[in-house]
Amino acid sequence: MSTFERPLTEGRTSWKKAAAVAVPAVLAVGALAAVTAQGALAASFAVSGTSFQVSSGRLTSQGLASYVHIDRDVDGKGHPVALLGIGDARLSDICQSAAVDTPLGKVVFKLTAGGSAGEVTASNLVIDGEDLTGDARFGTAEIGRDASTLDRVRGVKGEPGKFGLQAGDIEVVGVRSRAWSATGGNFRLKGMRLNVSLDGKQCF
Question: Which residue in 196, 161, 172, 162 sits closest to 64, CA to CA?
Fold first, then answer.
């Protein structure tokens, strides 16, 4: 009887059996992570009860796609948003902040990056925003397109029959948005700084 054919004694692990179970699971998780990072599968999660601010001096991208969407918190409450899909985003800088009520008072969570440290980049950035302001330039725009046929940003599509819009290359200066969630793949945050403070200043 070979070593691999010998009956297992109590307390001994069969590494061959463990590998047979673990390898497919690891491959599945890896594939899911890769697909999510590429934007082919939108990350889904319950949002908190607090919206946050996002701002940037300048945002550019090779494409934009948008449609109306509903974000829900853990209690099932819905928050109507414009889902903004931005492919291969480049930002001169970024600021993200949220004011959170705590027993000590209002605490501001603030993250900044970019500026003199270099550009911030992200692939298939998706922002679920209440609003977006700035001075914008769009390439070819298609407004009123069926949300299920959007194809400018990989993986960003809505339900059939719903209103959607998309555009080619975009540039927005003086970006300001109030959002409920943001996801993206391959974030590069040069010069990142995170600060939590009582009664601190938000992005705008």
Answer: 172
pLDDT in tens, 63-107: 999 999 999 988 889 999 999 999 999 999 999 999 999 999 999
Please state whether 45 falls in left (phi above 0), alpha (psi between -120 and 50) or beta: beta
Based on its alpha-carbon atoms, the radius of gyration of the chain, rounded to whole angstroms, reads 22
Q: What are the CA-CA distances from residue 132 to residues 81, 84, 135, 175 (Å)? A: 11, 10, 10, 7
Q: What is the DSSP string of 123-167?
A: EEEEEEEEEEEEEEEESSEEEEEEGGG--SSTT----TT-EEEEE
Task: Please write the tens of the pLDDT for every residue from 36-59.
Answer: 333 333 445 788 888 999 999 999
Query: Strand pairing partners for 132?
Result: 177
Residue ranges per domain, the chain?
52-198
CA dihedral 55, 78, 126, 185 (to 10 degrees): 110
Strand-pair category, 105-114 with 93-102: antiparallel
Per DSSP, helices labelled H in the chain are 15-37
